[in-house]
Design goal:
The chain is α/β, with parallel strands linked by helices. It has 2 domains: about 5-135, Up-down Bundle (Four Helix Bundle (Hemerythrin (Met), subunit A)), CATH 1.20.120; about 140-345, Translation initiation factor eif-2b, domain 2 (Rossmann fold). It is about 40% helix and about 15% strand. The chain contains 11 helices and 16 strands. It has helices at about 35-40, 50-65, 70-85, 95-110, 115-145, 170-180, 195-205, 220-225, 250-260, 290-295, 335-345; strands spanning about 5-10, 10-15, 25-30, 150-155, 185-190, 210-215, 230-235, 240, 245-250, 265-270, 275, 295, 300, 315, 325, 330. The strands form 4 sheets. Strands 6-5-4-7-10-15-16 form a 7-stranded mixed β-sheet, sandwiched between helices. Strands 11-8-9-14 form a 4-stranded mixed β-sheet, covered by helices on one side. Helix 1 (about 35-40) packs antiparallel against helix 2, helix 2 (about 50-65) packs parallel to helix 4 (about 95-110) and helix 2 (about 50-65) runs antiparallel to helix 5 (about 115-145). The structure holds 5-S-methyl-1-O-phosphono-5-thio-D-ribulose. The site of 5-S-methyl-1-O-phosphono-5-thio-D-ribulose has 19 residues, from helix 2 and strand 9.
């Protein structure tokens, strides 16, 4: 699987412009932390793990363009950059997790000069990216074991390579199963209002040669009822300590539908998405986005111009509706409150 949404080339941070897909494949050069903030806000780079990686590179760009000549000045510059990048979107925990990690790294080093400090921060951001590749591969291997006998899978939004570093989370087991020669069919919810399912998941899976069918979000119940789905697998933006999992709006309803049809409902996510400081999903901040995303379908106005709309970008699948959480350190089964912590402490990457 070769799609990568974010990388560094000759010292320049590059991202795929995801709002243009699938019509156009365009790579954007990101030179400043402000450009990175904007790219995250506008969803040019999106998906929790990819936002985490963008957070790391954004902080690097922030300090690269700042000037400081002491340890205190360096730490202050990193803190300022971290605080700023964390205002771009509120839900994906990886954004905050990565920013905290960069702040911690800044405090560990012995400051000698600006160039060296910049380089250490860049290396840390690259490390976050490299670790995410290994995590996604591991999620894929654990997930592939779990889903090996499935012929029909349903996913929502895009939790694929585009949303991570490579492989994805929810799509990672599909890539592994495909590599292993398994035959299966994927139904991709189109994912209103911004169509990450039909624009991105379908694009990714089609490129990989995986059998993918796009459905409107309101068709999920029908494909379940008619026996076409053996498991639902989605990603997560933030998982609370009790296993409640925030993911793209519509995930909550999907979890209820899966339960009603006795279909296993899996969350696939790395531990960088788990916020152990939050007890339950009730405490997860949910982003509300511009109403025009709902009033328009692309360029076309599909509701009265000034009509009131409600546009939450995420909702929470309650732990009770989740069969298991597939992480890079192993498969976590209920009770999640105990087992998330246990697997985090004792689990292992699958090689
Ligand atoms: O608003 P988006 O496109 O950033 O939302 C993304 C999702 O909801 C994904 O499912 C989630 O971040 C998991 S990505 C591996």
């Amino acid at each position: 699987m070769k799609t990568k949404p974010i990388w560094v080339e000759d010292g320049v941070v590059k991202i795929i412009a995801q709002t243009l897909l699938p019509e156009e494949y365009k790579v954007l050069d990101i030179h400043t932390i402000e450009e990175m903030w904007d790219a995250i806000k506008r969803l040019e780079v999106r998906g929790a793990p990819a936002i985490g990686i963008a957070s790391g590179f954004g902080i690097y760009l922030g300090i690269k363009n700042a000037s400081f000549n002491s340890r205190e000045g360096f730490i202050e510059a990193v803190d300022r950059a971290a605080e700023y990048i964390c205002t771009s979107r509120p839900t994906a925990y990886n954004l905050f997790w990565a920013a905290d990690r960069m702040k911690k790294r800044a405090r560990e080093i012995e400051f000698t000069n600006e160039n060296e400090a910049n380089d250490i921060i860049l290396q840390e951001a690259k490390k976050i990216l490299a670790e995410d590749i290994a995590s996604c591969k591991s999620i894929g291997l654990y997930g592939a074991e779990l889903l090996a006998s499935c012929e029909g899978l349903l996913t929502h939004c895009n939790a694929g390579a585009l949303a991570t570093s490579e492989y994805g989370t929810a799509l990672a087991p599909m890539y592994i199963l495909h590599e292993q020669g398994h035959e299966f069919k994927v139904f991709a919810d189109e994912t209103r209002p911004l169509l990450q399912g039909s624009r991105l998941t379908a694009w990714e899976l089609k490129q990989a040669g995986i059998d993918v069918t796009v459905i409107c979000d309101n068709m999920a119940g029908l494909v379940m009822k008619t026996g076409q789905i053996d498991a639902v697998i989605v990603g997560a933006d933030r998982i609370a300590a009790n296993g409640d999992s925030a993911n793209k709006i519509g995930t909550y309803s999907l979890s209820i539908l899966a339960k009603a049809h006795n279909i296993p409902f899996y969350i696939a996510a790395p531990f960088s998405t788990v916020d152990f400081s939050i007890k339950s999903g009730d405490d997860i901040p949910i982003e509300e986005r511009d109403g025009d995303e709902i009033r328009h379908f692309g360029e076309r106005l599909t509701a009265p111009k000034d009509i009131k709309v409600f546009n939450p970008a995420f909702d929470v699948a309650p732990a009770d509706n989740i069969t298991a959480i597939i992480t890079e350190k192993g498969i976590v089964e209920p009770p999640f409150k105990e087992n998330l912590q246990k697997v985090f402490n004792e689990g292992k990457l699958k090689e």
